[in-house]
Amino acid sequence: MASSTTENYLKHLLLLQQRQEDGAPIPTGKLATSLEVTPGTATVMVKGMAESGLMAYEARTGVRLTEQGERLALDVLRRHRLIEQFLVQVLGLDWSEVHEEAEILEHAVSEKVLQRIDQHLGHPAFDPHGDPIPTAAGIIESRKLLRLDHVEPGQAVTICQVENQDPAFLRFADAKGLTPGTPLTVTDIDLMADAITLTRSDQSDLVIGTTAARKIFVMIDSST
Fold this sequence. Notes:
This protein is of the alpha+beta class. It folds into three domains: 4-65, Winged helix-like DNA-binding domain superfamily/Winged helix DNA-binding domain (Arc Repressor Mutant, subunit A, Orthogonal Bundle); 68-142, Winged helix-like DNA-binding domain superfamily/Winged helix DNA-binding domain (Arc Repressor Mutant, subunit A, Orthogonal Bundle), CATH 1.10.10; 146-220, Ferrous iron transport protein A (FeoA) (SH3 type barrels). The protein contains eight helices and eight strands. The chain has helices at 4-19, 28-35, 39-51, 67-89, 98-105, 111-121, 167-175, 210-213; strands at residues 55-58, 62-65, 146-147, 156-162, 183-190, 195-200, 205-208, 216-220. Helix 2 crosses helix 3. The longest helix has 23 residues, at 67-89. The radius of gyration is 19 Å and the shape is globular. 29% of the residues are buried. The model has no long low-confidence stretch (mean pLDDT 95).
């Protein structure tokens, strides 16, 4: 069984790879930043995991998951996101506080308990933040999403995913009604004023900054 440190490295590298569209290796320094460790610490750990067959490492180029490493990383990600959904849906915790709790529990939950959690929740495809939950077979549902600040004025959208896990931002998003499943229309984008005007389903307007909009991913309404 992999250690919690190994699982954290695998999960963070998987998430970085998912965000890197060109498929290039992830620089070790970037992985270190994601894990909040020094580059030297990350390099030592990565080399050891490469020797174990979990990562492929090239000095001065970067690192990527091997097939074996990816399977383990998807399993950790599945545990994390199912636990987050359980904490919100069953225990009633706020979505802004479940990430840190899941970071701890993901390393302790057994496969038997995880299967029961999945069954009890009705086999959810997404966690409270809209992140896709890998299936037991390691399959992640693919969606064509667009960052909110890239939407053209006049387009109707539905919020699908809030990428940022910072509790303060999640509380802000919740207070503004910027949660997964919420329909909106992008009314105006003023880059000079760093402002995006959104119209809610009740026809009330909401103005947010582009920095906040970059953390929110939406799906375009096909009828617009």
